[in-house]
Design brief:
Distance between the termini: 116 Å
Mean pLDDT: 83
Structural class: alpha/beta
Shape: extended
Strand content: 15-25%
Number of helices: 27
Low-confidence stretches: 1-18, 384-395, 720-729
């Protein structure tokens, strides 16, 4: 290293600590992640070419520079906008050149300065500066702040290793409040932003108050760190003592020929893993984990984690497989015994198994059963395949390769919307729809009633259900696509009858009839509301699809004096709100032909409110479009919607009716609600083939292609309305 002095070859004396007169302009040295304070002696490493040029130039002059912190340390070559406006004037006291091309300087800080403007930016930054002196008001509060800062800082020095003990003496002997704040602020490890705020604060009392808050925070952090360190040390000592004692205990047990329970379990696990035909990678991983387990004490938390991991590996069928039972006749028999109807679903499953018979070496597949809860998805997958193997197998993430190429996966879902597209594309999807009332009746008679009689300790000789009783339970006490709630209600009846036999109140066989159902289950839970709800203009009955099956919803519309606003409530999604806006726009654009009795300024002088009850349930989708339009048409014309009619379909601005999905589920919902006439898009006419024939007999489908047809079928005629008011049949 070369020590550089004055340009004349001899050393040059530099006065340290003296306040210097401010030059008109001064070179600026940007500081990265660092803030200097007045009167501090600062060592700096200088590496940027322009900064080195600045130092070389000032060494030949008065050696004065301004040290200013950068706002963003990531900027390689900071400009005027990247620097703070307040810094410290300093004098380069010493400079040493390093062989790597950088230089090291020692700078004596002077007074605080504020940058007024920039003289130039090349070859280095030169700024016009003004002094920013401290504001000191000698008050008792200032003295108290000084003492508090001195005491708190002294406590921190005793606990923090990076602060030398000499600082305690220096701080205790400082009488000047400005110098005290500068000394402590420069010594602490704070964020650049915090240090800059302290530097820019001219009021010494405010600076000491802020410094007092920072010191209190740092002291609390130091205290917490000391507590944690003490706890860690205590735990280490405790662990070492426990390890020593357990080592002695193990030696004693070995001497006596005894083993503890944990060792015995670990040995048994080792034998299980040794018997497995593991791939090379898995065997290496198992050996590593077994070695870790041997080094751990059973009381350690990590012991349970490692042991559980190894137990999962031991539970997997490495190198073993079961023979698939691909007997189509047996599969057909099992499906018919346990599941009523759903012939399309059974055929899809049998077709899938037939392919497996013809191509045994086919790669494993994924079957996806999609449908509402309670329609038999899980049980379909369990009697088709080997129940013992598939009931006990559990999948765990082990971070090891495991051959699944010959595994048949069976998955279930209520809806496809929540399944990621890439996963859905890799599945063989089988759709299951809800059951009709007739299907539910047969399922109850064949499966649910016998099962609940047996589960509740009864016998067929003690209890029987009439068809009317089962129909009453289906219609009045359940409202579902599947049969789970139906089985629960049948079970409730069986439990009440079982109690009567147990208490001696029943002596002979009990026939459960419809009146007996109401006596045992209480008041009806569900009612058909269509006739009552649509008796007034402005209410229409719609059909919706949900993940748990079809459902009936009512859409209400009303008008009031206003300024032409449309209000939509009922927790509706964006698509449904857009359908409402499209329906209203169509009606307004065709008001002259549809509602000639309306005043010309009706829509400008009235607000319209559309509401879909059950506001706690989110609703969305375009299929309510024609229902909303019908509710509005009913309101504006004063003609109620026919009570026996429900509808589904999307509407366009030109009045076209577009197709929808889930027609079968919606038809089932209509049947459950007692509705017998359904208006649906003409483009959905082919979907009617998916609906069972007996259900089609009970329902009338009206297929339409434009909204005018919907109004003709749904709205009561004025004459029929007058006759109804007059009581004429």
């Amino acid at each position: 290293m070369i020590e550089v002095g004055a340009s004349d070859g001899g050393p040059k004396e530099v006065e340290i600590g003296a306040q210097r007169a401010l030059p008109a302009a001064v070179g600026v040295l940007p500081l990265r992640d660092m803030v200097t304070f007045p009167d501090m002696l600062v060592p700096l490493n200088v590496g940027q070419p322009r900064s080195i040029e600045l130092i070389n130039d000032v060494l030949g002059g008065d050696r004065t520079i301004a040290m200013v912190a950068t706002r963003t340390p990531d900027v390689e070559v900071p400009g005027p906008d990247d620097l703070y406006a307040v810094g410290v004037l300093g004098v380069v006291a010493r400079m040493i050149r390093v062989p790597d091309g950088t230089i090291r300087i020692l700078v004596q800080g002077g007074q605080r300065v504020r940058i007024k403007g920039w003289d130039r930016t090349e070859p280095y930054l030169v700024a016009e500066i003004a002094e920013a002196p401290d504001i000191v008001k000698q008050t008792p509060e200032l003295v108290a702040l000084m003492r508090n800062v001195q005491q708190t800082f002294s406590s921190i020095v005793e606990e923090v290793p990076y602060l030398p003990e000499e600082l305690q003496v220096m701080v205790a002997n400082v009488d000047d409040p400005s110098a005290l704040s500068h000394l402590i602020a420069g010594a602490l490890r704070l964020k650049t932003e915090e240090k800059q705020q302290l530097l820019e604060e001219l009021d010494v009392a405010k600076r000491l108050r802020r410094l007092s808050e920072i010191l209190a925070r740092e002291l609390e952090v130091v205290a917490i760190g000391s507590k944690i360190q003490s706890q860690v040390q205590s735990e280490l000592e405790k662990g070492q003592r426990e390890f020593f004692l357990r080592s002695q205990l193990k030696a004693i047990q070995d001497e006596l020929g005894e083993t503890d329970e944990a060792q015995a379990e670990a040995g048994e696990l080792r034998e299980q893993l040794a018997a497995l035909e593991l791939p090379e990678e898995a065997r290496k991983q198992v050996d590593r984990e077994l070695a870790r387990l041997a080094r751990l004490q059973p009381a350690m938390a990590e012991y349970g984690v490692v042991r559980g991991y190894l137990e999962w590996i031991a539970a997997l069928p490495w190198g073993t497989s079961t023979e698939d039972k691909l007997d189509l006749a047996h599969a057909r028999k099992v499906l018919d015994e346990d599941h009523y109807d759903i012939e399309q679903v059974k055929d899809r499953i049998l077709e899938f198994l037939a392919v497996r018979i013809l191509k045994p070496d086919a790669r494993g597949s994924i079957l996806l059963f999609v449908g509402p809860p309670g329609v038999g998805k899980t049980s379909l997958g369990r009697e088709v395949l080997d129940p013992e193997q598939n009931r006990t197998f559990r999948d765990h993430y082990l971070d090891l390769p495991f051959d699944l190429s010959n595994v048949m996966f069976i998955t279930t879902a209520n809806t496809l919307e929540t399944i990621p597209g890439p996963l859905r594309d890799r599945m063989e999807m089988i759709q299951l729809a809800g059951y009709t009332e007739a299907e539910k009746l047969e399922i109850a008679k064949r499966y649910l009633v016998p099962r609940q009689i047996e589960r509740n300790g009864l016998r067929p000789s003690r209890i029987a259900f009439s068809d009317t009783a089962l129909r009453a339970i289906i219609a009045d006490y359940t409202r579902e696509a599947g049969v789970r709630q139906l089985e629960r209600e049948i079970g409730a009846v069986c439990r009440k009858i079982a109690r009567q036999f147990a208490e001696g109140k029943a002596k002979r066989k009990v026939m459960v009839t419809e009146p007996r159902v109401r006596e045992l289950l209480g008041r009806r839970k569900f009612f058909s509301e269509s006739r009552r709800r649509t008796s007034r203009p402005g209410v229409a009955t719609g059909l919706a699809w949900t993940p748990v099956g079809g459902d009936v919803l009512f859409i209400e519309a009303t008008a009031m004096p206003g300024s032409g606003k449309l209000q939509i409530t009922g927790q509706l999604g964006d698509v449904m709100k857009e359908s409402a806006q499209a329906a209203l726009s169509y009606l307004r654009s065709h008001a002259d032909e549809l509602f000639p009795e309306l005043a010309e300024d009706y829509f400008a002088t009235h607000d319209i409110h559309i509401h879909v009850p059950a506001g706690a349930i989110p609703k969305d989708g375009p299929s309510a479009g024609i229902t909303i339009a019908s509710a509005l048409a009913s309101l504006l014309s004063g003609r109620p919607i026919r009570a026996e009619v429900a509808m589904t379909g999307e509407i366009t601005l030109t009045g076209q009716v577009l197709p929808i999905g889930g027609l079968k589920e919606k038809a089932l919902a209509a049947q459950r609600a007692g509705i017998r006439r359904i208006i649906a898009p003409a483009l959905n006419e082919y979907d009617i083939e998916e609906i069972p024939a007996h259900l089609r007999k009970d329902l009338e489908f009206v297929f339409v292609s434009e909204i005018g047809q919907v109004f003709d079928e749904a709205l009561e005629t004025p004459r029929a309305r007058r006759r109804a008011r007059a009581g004429v049949a």
